[in-house]
Amino acid sequence: MSKVCAICGKKPAAGRNISHSHRVTPRTFRPNIQKVTVVLEGRVKRVNVCTKCMKTTTKVSR
User: Fold this and answer.
1) pTM over cut 0.70
2) Cα–Cα distance, 21 to 23 (Å, whole number)
3) In angstroms, what CA-CA distances link 39 with 2, 36, 49, 60?
């Protein structure tokens, strides 16, 4: 599954874990991507969308 949101373009970001003893290790922050069935231009499509976009689009459509 692609880790990029189809609506906002959110994708994995690089960062660092820092322990209590201040040892630094690399890590990635991944967005919470879900496959959602959406009607686009009269067609039913399965789209990868982050949960934040899912939440805002349901608010707008109400």
Assistant:
1) yes
2) 6
3) 20, 10, 13, 15
Model confidence pLDDT, tens digit, residues 14-50:
999 999 999 999 999 999 999 999 888 889 999 999 9
What is the number of residues in the chain?
A: 62
Q: At 12, give phi and psi (nearest 5°).
A: -60, 140
Provide DSSP, 1-62.
Answer: ---S-TTT----EEEEEE-TT--EEEEEE---EEEEEEEETTEEEEEEEEHHHHHHHHHHH-
What backbone torsions phi and psi does residue 6 show, to the nearest 5 degrees?
A: -75, -20
